[in-house]
Amino acid sequence: MGGRDTDIVLLDENGIRSDGRKVNETRKVTIKAGVLKNANGSAYIEFGDNKILVGVYGPRDVHPKHLSDTDTGILRCRYHMVPFSVGERKKPAPSRREVEISKVIKEALEPAVMLKEFPRTAVDVYMEVLQADGGTRCAALTGASVALADAGIPMRDLVAGCAAGKAADAVILDVNNEEDQAGQADLPIGYMPNLKKITLLQLDGVLTPEEYKQCIEIGIDGCNQVYEIQKKALQDKFFSNGEKQ
Amino acid sequence: MSSERKRHVIPGEVITSGPYRSEQNTIQVGENIVSTIVGLSDVHDGSVRVIPLTGGYMPKDDDLVIGKIVSHSSLSWTADINSCYAGMLPASDVFGRDYSSSSDDMTAKLAKGDLIAARIVNADKTRDPLITISGRELGKIDSGELVKISPNKVPRLIGKRGSMIQMIESSTNSQITIGQNGLLVVSSEDPNGLLKAIRAIELIEEQAHVANLTDQVNEMLESKSE
Amino acid sequence: MSDGLIIDQLKKTQILELLQEGKRVDGRQFEEPRKLSIDVGVIPKAEGSARARLGDTEVVAGVKVQPERPFPDTGDKGMLICTAEILPIAHSTAETGPPQPDVVELARVTDRGIRESGMLDMKQLVLEKDKSVIGIFCDNAVTDHDGNLFDACSYASTAAINSCKIPKYEMQDERPVKIEDEFIEPPITTLPVSVTMAKIGDFILVDPTIEEWGIMDARITITSNSDGNVVALQKGGSDGFTQEELIKCAELSIKVGSKIREIIKQSKQSDN
Predict the structure, then answer these.
(1) Domain B6-52 CATH class label
(2) Class of B145-223 per CATH?
(3) What's the rounded Cα separation, in Å, for the pair A31 and A34?
(4) In this predicted complex, what is the ipTM?
(5) Which helix (H) or strand (E) covers residue A78, if one does?
(6) A89-109 pLDDT tens trace
(7) Contact assignment for C11 to B146 by CB distance below 8 Å
(8) What is the rounded distance in angstroms from the CA atom of residue A37 to the CA atom of residue A55?
(9) A154 vs B36: CB contact, 8 Å cut-off?
(10) Nearest CB neighbour to A156, from listed B12, B85, B207
(11) CATH number for region A29-237
């Protein structure tokens, strides 16, 4: 969490944020399903200036065999940033941050994904961040859900991601990079919209109990908005050019 | 109970509520029956299922599949059957029960890269499914062109009581072996017929969800264009 | 990586039969590369970027520029490093973890092709001799693999570097400081373009697909520059080329390369 001194006005007297948004507005989100030729399922998501490409392979054979489970398929996730995705070039090898985010996203998807029908196999989710601007883990999670649905992996629900936070003493929705650097709190959320369960939750910063409640509320609202975009991406790919049978 | 209109659904979406049986690709959540995949919901006689529009092939007993030999041991060949589970073809299926085969014997019969038409004998998921190539129209495939489509388009390609596939075969003078796993082998004496058959298959894969598909395919087959 | 790919017998036979008739499976001529489209500026926050689509193969290259300490023996030149990785989304057999030999080869061949051509006049990228120079990194990420990654990475890199904007730096108190919103044009001297050819029997095929790659006997990647000179070479595969074949390959790569160079030039103009 930043809290760095900045010349940028995070919130002006009219309640407008540095990028022109209101406190409860998410950045522009677009998602396209089925963008890769080889992957079993895929999605490309732009969440503000974040650009993330997700590919899913599976269910498929597990190597080495000792990693597989005889009772169920396993879910493996890799969140990775390409070297040119951030301000200062990032070396290709996975950082500890990427390892942690990979784990947190896996645990956000596991409640949704149903792999008992595929013993001894794995479903691999690869999220590649091509350009980062704050909130990449929520965007990656959002794209991953669409890619999994595109691949035909059975799921109880989709998982939508959006972060809430605090900047200039106000609770805000969808923290961008500037606000993350200079703000007071960042709370990424992953949410299953139909089952109404939160499956990803982290906090970086300081919140009073009241602010915490508000963040969760506004964050769930953001996730519901993101869910509509996920739905649209799948509808556009599978249901658009033709009538029902 | 009457059949409801088929609907497009995505994972997590509620299809219906009340006293229905949850069948393929659905789960019961409280009062609701919910879809677990992207597909078309089908409510019929008190049960609810979803017809998938995407997803891979899961081996089922008696399915005819096209496989590619990828390796062998002294006891069996392993075949890639376009699924997360590989097909196991025991040596005894080809050589008989008492014959003990050497590696050369194995490769002489079926080598890496060979294509086979096989039937799933035993598809329990605790191990790789057993397959057999002894049977009518089964065995090594020597000629033809291999075409791959999404396995959930196969029913559309076959059509009601085989009507679609027969229409393509007869109007293009070709023979099409359809694997339930989405792999097909198309052969024809007539190279133009072969091309037309393949184009018809590609059309069905693209437009499987469209209502007037049969008309579209008919039109394509009857057109004079090569 | 595609060494693990088993091409089925029917397809192998089909490819070979068609070659005897002078045809390729996808209808191309032997000397014809697949359709190439290049978009630059796809990653606006990077100093340069390009997405190259060669048939169904897709590569995204990003250019990052930052001040670096020079290598001890080249204090009068800027630094240029190209890398390449096959992302696991690109193919079912692509692995994560430390790069396999074929990926290391891809990265090094891409790097040599750009660097040995002298594409950038590195002498113009010095801030203070022996102390501070401009470092240019061009990282290639393969997002979809349908054969011939060498050429796809070459085109993405050349297009990305050709269209990049180098921030202006000034030395202040012995340290390089970026001047906001001021840029310099990259000192481009030439546009290197690689062309990869597969040898199947006696046939030489330009821009092999992943299936042709799977049954080829040998391959060669030849990079040429805007003057029509050969600047980098890499032969691979387990068979050999005859002398005549090598001369033919060089001629082919210069001829095919010059057409591709035009596409790369166009990509920069359509961005402006």
Answers:
(1) mainly beta
(2) alpha beta
(3) 10
(4) 0.93
(5) strand A74-81
(6) 999 889 999 999 999 999 999
(7) yes
(8) 10
(9) yes
(10) B12
(11) 3.30.230.70
